[in-house]
Amino acid sequence: MNKTVSKSVIHGTLVAPTSKSALQRLIVAAILAKEKSVISFESMSEDAEAVLGTAISLGAQVFKSNNEIEIQGGIQNPTGQINIGESGLGLRMVAPVLAAFPFSFEISGRGSLMKRPLGFVVDTLLSCGVEIQDTNGSLPIKLKGPILGDKIIIDGSVGSQLLTGFLFAGPILNRDIEIEVSNLKSKPYIDLTISILSDFGIEILNQSYERFMIKSGQSYKACNCYAEGDWSGAAFVLVAAAIAGEIRLTGINNQSLQGDKQIVDVIKACGASVVASDNEIFIKKNKLNAFEFDATDVPDLFPPLVALAVNCDGRSFIKGVGRLKHKESDRAMTLQNEFGKLGANIQINSDLMIIDGGKLHGANVFSNHDHRIAMALAVAALTIENAVVIESSEAVGKSWPDFFEKLESIGAQIK
Question: What CATH number did the domain enclosing 339 receive?
């Protein structure tokens, strides 16, 4: 499916989409509680739907209405087949949880997830005594637990998602567990994990993000909770406002533990007008200057930051390119290539992305089946004189299915 986005003026009020990072974590915690949990949300992404399907496969009873999920947890009579869709977080979070049980499972998925290398996941689980077999280094994988021993060692340099999985799995093992982590990236997401675990009655001792202690005797308690707004998705509409108008975004927690809320600091530093309160934020276009930002711990901000940078005066620098290799696409190369079609000058120098601001032109571009690339291109198109045609725009469904409809509701010209 193609979407054509023309130059537009953005204005109005929008409710932030639900954080798929938070919602997926809440669903997994609810699966592991034996009583009924109720999760309220604003919107449902494809990734969250995939994890919800996992809940059903594991024997949980699930009832979903428009904005609420009831999950009667407790893993019982689980099926051996798990399809995690295209959710990288879902895979890395669910695999250690499944490995905590003495059952055999086969995990599969779809789309770009089927091509992502899994050596790190497989090797870490093997080191814990889990029987596991991949398919030429990728999905599907077969595994059989349980996790053995009381100490788990994880290389955190490739991200925090597998650590999140082991933090969820630890309390199931019914013994004291120590997790030792080296060079941990994306620390804010671990803060989010620990906070959600605490809501479900699980306490984790975090020793400087290098060692995590999980005491035995803990069990998941059901929780009635709300999946907060998504700063990763919000970043795109906030950048849209900064470059092409104004917006009041509601349903967003300015005290959130989500690392991607740092987008506000960058937008403000560039020169846009920013007014924030507890659960909303107002951003208005102004003259924008180039910026420097280290996105190593928040790599999902790269796409909206590029859309911002091409609209700034001067040359911007974003650090953390090494975190982009194994996303839905090779995001650094995809950003360089697709924005290059619009006339942007983007250079990649080792771990640094260098973006020159300047006037762009319309073109046909390709999402590369990556939701955040599709969103970034749509936002950048708002300031381009000639229309931008985005091929495979349906990729946005992974995190924000009605992204284009919401963008249109605040003034974007889309067809």
Answer: 3.65.10.10
Reference 234, options 215, 254, 219, 216; nearest CA is: 254
Query: What are the tens digits of pLDDT across the range 21-30?
Result: 999 999 999 9
Examine residue 220 and state whether it is found in any structural domain, yes or no. no
Instruction: In whole angstroms, give the CA distance from residue 218 to residue 212.
Output: 15
Determine which helix (DSSP H) or strand (DSSP E) holds 61, and give its type and residue range.
strand 61-64
Query: Which structural domain range is residue 378 located in?
Result: 3-17+229-414
Largest Cα–Cα distance in the chain?
62
d(CA 167, CA 196): 11
pTM over 0.90: yes
177-182 and 211-214 strand pairing: antiparallel
For residue 262, the Cα-to-chain-centroid distance in whole angstroms is 15
Task: Assess whether 137 and 270 both reside in one domain.
Answer: no
Instruction: Compute the residue count for the chain.
Output: 415
CA gap 415, 405 in Å, rounded: 10
For the chain, the domain total comes to 2
The set of catalytic residues is: 300
